[in-house]
Amino acid sequence: MKDEATVNPRRVRDPGRTRRDLIASATGLFSARGFDGVSVDDIVAAAGVNKRMVYHYFQNKEGLYLAVLGAVFRRLSDLELEALESATDPVEAIAGILEAYFAFLGKNPEFVALLSWENLYQGRFVSKHPELLSKNPALTRLRKAVKDGVRRGIFRDNIDVKHLLVSLISLCFVYHANRYTLSRSVGLNLESAEVLRKGLAHVTDLTLNGLRIS
User: Fold this and answer.
1) Do 34 and 99 fall within a single domain?
2) 21 & 114 share domain
3) Would you give per-residue pLDDT tens digits along the chain (214 residues)?
4) How many angstroms separate the CA atoms of 84 and 71, rounded?
């Protein structure tokens, strides 16, 4: 069997880079075609590595797919935690996580596509590995921010933090996941940076007014 250097003579053996290249190539392909529309041959051709590397690092195509999902969700989780932990008050925490979501979704269209595919699959892969998508760290910090807002007399005391997080994600996600259909049906160019800026301001205002004591 040909080794990696034989497939690509210029490539110096680097296990870490090989794994990263496989994940990067698989991310692009899975986001464009979904799990069923991509073969291992497609992935290794795009990555320029030997086919056996997929099985060496990930066992099979599903293992690589789960690694892709884990990688993109960790990037989002890191941003969530950074936004919540760096905030100096509860209002800044809510505004910061909304801003983080808008920025992440705009820069990571593959995340939007992968999440859409996984919902089309009715969570057939992540249901077997719920830890990949766990929002527990973000929920813990968001709950702390909300409690702080209640203590300071800013937020209502009957806020369900899990529903709040779903709302925060949903309000941001629709601007990116449905940008083509909404751009035409509503008459807003959701690919415009200025329109997205106004959208973020609107979502932030809407959310904070819904949380504040009236």
Assistant:
1) no
2) no
3) 444 444 554 445 666 889 999 999 999 999 999 999 999 999 999 999 999 999 999 999 999 999 999 999 999 999 999 999 999 999 999 999 999 999 999 999 999 999 999 999 998 888 888 787 788 899 999 999 999 999 999 999 999 999 999 999 999 999 999 999 999 999 999 999 999 999 999 999 999 999 999 7
4) 20
Is 116:181 a contact under the CB 8 Å cutoff? no
Does one domain contain both 130 and 49?
no
**pTM as predicted:** 0.85
Distance CA 149, CA 4 (A): 56
For the beta carbon of residue 205, count every other beta carbon within 10 angstroms.
11
For 173, other C-beta atoms within 10 Å of its C-beta total 17
Tokens 């329109």 label which residue?
A: 195
In-domain check, residue 64: no
- Please indicate, yes or no, if residue 65 is contained in any of the structural domains: no
Q: What angle do CA 106, 85, 91 make, to 5 degrees?
A: 80
Q: Do residues 165 and 159 touch, judged by C-beta distance below 8 A?
A: no
Q: Backbone phi, then psi, for 155, in 5-degree steps?
A: -105, 155
Out of 35, 59, 83, a domain closes at: 59
Both structure tokens of 90: 């509860």
